[in-house]
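Here is the promised in-class demo. Please do not try to memorize the tokens; focus on the logic of going from shape to residues.
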């Protein structure tokens, strides 16, 4: 039968969700499931009361109409204040578009920038949503690498060599460079010196620089975060962020993009992003008022963020310690976000690939993780390190049991 679906719809997938139906089925049939597959802090860290109150107040005041498409003024002003406060950036109202999560911003960006056959630069392992979003608009991704042997940093010399080797036509078609900093899935915070080189490279190849900084306040273990908005002066760029992670409010679905520059490219992009916002009329209005209070009430946020990040740090470090004791795993210590991305020793194990590993882990041990290939890195897996230590310990023990069960016969002695 001829398909009714569009050709590009075949790229629409989300590896974070691929076992959700199965794990729910198993749970409903009495199996204990430990779900470490989705980065949803609000399950373990309730959204702060002052935000909930603001949401309720907006509902009580019947703010249930369409809002301005680009976002309510109160929220836009709070976002402007935030970037001034944290990064010393002066933004204008026209530089900010509020979206239904960063997820919607990614759709706007790709739909607005990508013609069939255009390219965009990503770094492996990438955040899993980046690629389907680009592919479905006909992009041909070009990949740089995070270097696992170098704490998942980016070797910009290698990147330059790779880019120089690209055919001229491909170089010309590079539309944007996409980064997640801090990174999902590795938890890496990039050094300022690396970011500065990436800014130069984006500039040299006329790529719009896009920095997804949704975890910019979740930084620990002594790392120092630098926002692209602070250093990409004079180079067209978009910074993405939102409420999901820094405010532990994933379900409010509030994201935003800021475009601080005012060159002709930035002006075009800003105008087009606004058109996309108009096209979908509005996002959730009461949630925007809650977000205005969430971001604008710095005192309350300061009270929340300290304890929140310190708990995340303990949980990540705890899980890291256990994982790094496994003889089958190699693990880099994260210093941002709340993910850990170990590599399993494929030479010692009999898994066909990481999809089989993830599948077996769910079916036999009841632990749901995400396969590394969903982030562009075979032979790895990602765990979300938000659950309390006792849960993480149980899950990691089960991971080790599975690894031991699937070791190659020659390793039986040890
Ligand atoms: C790097 C990154 N960007 C965007 C998102 C999605 O954000 P939102 O909830 O704002 O759509 C996530 C969620 O895990 C993420 O890790």
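The designed amino acids, position by position:
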């Amino acid at each position: 039968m001829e398909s009714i679906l569009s050709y590009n719809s075949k790229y629409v997938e989300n590896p974070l969700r691929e076992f959700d139906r199965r794990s729910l089925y198993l749970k409903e049939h009495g199996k204990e499931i430990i779900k470490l597959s989705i980065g949803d802090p609000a399950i373990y860290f309730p959204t702060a009361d002052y935000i909930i109150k603001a949401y309720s107040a907006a509902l009580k005041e019947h703010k249930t109409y369409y809002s301005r498409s680009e976002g309510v003024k109160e929220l836009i002003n709070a976002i402007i204040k935030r970037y001034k406060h944290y990064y010393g950036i002066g933004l204008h109202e026209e530089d900010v578009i509020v979206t239904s999560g960063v997820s919607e911003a990614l759709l706007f960006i790709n739909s607005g920038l990508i013609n069939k056959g255009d390219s965009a630069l990503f770094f492996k392992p990438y955040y899993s949503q980046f690629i389907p979003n680009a592919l479905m608009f006909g992009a041909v991704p070009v990949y740089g690498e995070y270097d696992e042997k170098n704490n998942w940093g980016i070797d910009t010399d290698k990147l330059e060599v790779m880019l120089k080797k690209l055919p001229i036509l491909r170089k010309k078609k590079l539309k944007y460079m996409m980064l997640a900093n801090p990174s999902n899935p590795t938890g890496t915070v990039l050094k300022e010196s690396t970011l500065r080189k990436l800014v130069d490279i984006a500039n040299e190849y006329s790529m719009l620089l896009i920095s997804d900084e949704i975890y910019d306040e979740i930084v620990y273990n002594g790392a120092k975060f630098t926002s692209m908005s602070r250093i990409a002066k004079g180079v067209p760029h978009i910074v993405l962020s939102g409420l999901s992670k820094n405010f532990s409010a994933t379900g409010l679905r509030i994201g935003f993009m800021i475009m601080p520059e005012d060159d002709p490219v930035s002006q075009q992009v800003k105008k087009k992003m606004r058109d996309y916002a108009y096209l979908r009329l509005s996002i959730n209005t009461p949630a925007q008022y809650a977000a205005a209070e969430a971001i604008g009430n710095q005192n309350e946020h300061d009270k929340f963020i300290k304890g929140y990040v310190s708990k995340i740090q303990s949980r990540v470090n705890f899980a890291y310690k256990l994982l790094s004791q496994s003889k089958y795993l190699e693990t880099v210590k994260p210093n941002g976000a709340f993910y850990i991305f170990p590599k399993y020793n494929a030479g010692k194990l009999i898994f066909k690939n990481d999809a089989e590993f993830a599948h077996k882990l769910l079916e036999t041990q009841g632990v749901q993780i995400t396969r590394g290939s969903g982030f562009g890195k075979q032979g790895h897996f990602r765990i979300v390190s938000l659950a309390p230590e006792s849960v993480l310990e149980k899950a990691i023990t089960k991971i080790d049991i599975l690894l031991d069960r699937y070791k190659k016969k020659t390793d039986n002695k040890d």
